[in-house]
Amino acid sequence: MAVRIGFAYNQKPALPAPKKTGDSAVPSLDKVPANRALRTDLPQPDLYAEWDEPETIDAVANALSSLGEVIRLEAKDDFPRRLLDAKPDFVFNIAEGLFGVNRESHVPSICEFLGVPYHASDPLTLGLTLHKGRAKEIMAYYGVPTAPFIVANSRSDARNVNLPFPLFAKPALEGSGKGITQKSLCSNRAKLVQVVEELLETYQEPVLIESWLPGQEFTVAVLGNGKEARTLPLVGMRFDELPLGAQPIYGYEAKWLWDTPEHPLDLFECPANIPKELARDVRSAALSAYRILGCRDWCRVDIRCDAAGRPMVVELNPLPGILPNPQDNSCFPKAARAAGMTYDGLIQTVADIAWRRISGRALLKKAAERKRAAA
Ligand SMILES: Nc1ncnc2c1ncn2[C@@H]1O[C@H](COP(=O)(O)OP(=O)(O)OP(=O)(O)O)[C@@H](O)[C@H]1O
Ligand SMILES: [Mg+2]
């Protein structure tokens, strides 16, 4: 019998075109689709950046459909009831969650409560990695290299920070470049206090202040569990592709406003062309972070080098972005392509890794056998 796969996701709402403002920090709206533009009509300018477009949701559902029966379960308020009614064999989870600091943990917690196995990391890991400060505390405790930092809860925390400038400030609990802009790099205390104040006000959550890492940046796609956890080819950033004068930051502008499917920037090199020793250290830092934080099935780990060229873990993405269109420059699918995997192949491999962890049985082989039998 075909495996029944529940598919949990959050779909970006279709937003009306944003109102034009005189703010020169907001790029020309003619060039930026409504779903990417920074908004002045929402509580946060980038509120829905983490959620998925219908195109991504369809692509994942399509890839899963050759492994079994797919039941779409949009993670809205009726998710628990629909999950209970559907009772799938397992849930493939890409839901970023609605609101709050535990948002990424909601879907897996509900699955656990209702006794439905699910793919990817558990609520504890998702909670810890969403909070970049908590994740860094754990990494520091276990000796995983990560930059010095503090978590600021107030303006006065920023005023009293005792780390050498330049410093980098970002919301402690966001992803997809939310709240990270060219302004995040602060060369002095006055700038830092101002940026922290704005971030506290906008995101209503702590701000992570950490040492500026001036070196090369990589992102590492990790697949698998236990001894089988492995890295895909490293993705290196090429910041010289950013607009002239921009700081080397892969923040909201670079991810969503400057690099668009219509005008893609050649921002990445995969596999990164770097010395063997550096590649080894980057891989090893990524795998250590993956294991120490208890990640399962897959995760993308962001790494950047300090002034001495040592790789430091910036953050972990156990719900990695997986935009299907190669023009969108989504890094996990990019690393998979460099490893010879198609988009469908990546999603199916991840589902197979999860199902083997859950049930001890292969999913890919089973689907191939079913196809042969039906032929
Ligand atoms: N300490 C730092 N020093 C230098 N650059 C940094 C630092 N922290 C973050 N950055 C830059 O900001 C970018 C975004 O930071 P980070 O990965 O924490 O944000 P995110 O929104 O969680 O990203 P993602 O889209 O991967 O979810 C990094 O890719 C890097 O270019
Ligand atoms: Mg990141």
Give your account of this protein's structure.
The structure is a single chain. The protein has 12 helices and 13 strands. By secondary structure, it is an alpha+beta fold. The chain folds into 2 domains: 3-122 and 213-374, ATP-grasp fold, B domain (D-amino Acid Aminotransferase, Chain A, domain 1), CATH 3.30.470; 148-212, Dna Ligase, domain 1 (2-Layer Sandwich), CATH 3.30.1490.20. Strand 8 (217-223) and strand 9 form a beta hairpin. The relative contact order is 0.14. Residues 21-30 have low confidence and may be disordered. The structure holds adenosine-5'-triphosphate and magnesium ion. The site of adenosine-5'-triphosphate (ATP) has 21 residues, from strand 5, strand 12 and strand 13. Residues 302, 315 line the site of magnesium ion (MG).
Topology of this structure?
Blueprint (H helix, E strand, L loop, with lengths): L2 E7 L44 H12 L2 E7 L4 H8 L3 E4 L9 H11 L9 H8 L1 H11 L6 E4 L2 H5 L7 E5 L13 E2 L2 H15 L3 E5 L5 E7 L6 E2 L3 E3 L14 H7 L9 E2 L6 H17 L5 E8 L5 E7 L13 H8 L4 H17 L4 H11 L1
Parallel strand pairs: 1-2, 1-3
Antiparallel strand pairs: 4-7, 5-6, 5-7, 8-9, 8-10, 8-12, 10-11, 12-13
Helix pairs in contact: 1-11, 3-4
Bound molecules: adenosine-5'-triphosphate and magnesium ion.
Short description:
This protein folds into 2 domains: 3-122 and 213-374, ATP-grasp fold, B domain (D-amino Acid Aminotransferase, Chain A, domain 1), CATH 3.30.470.20; 148-212, Dna Ligase, domain 1 (2-Layer Sandwich), CATH 3.30.1490. 35% of the residues lie in helices and 17% in strands.
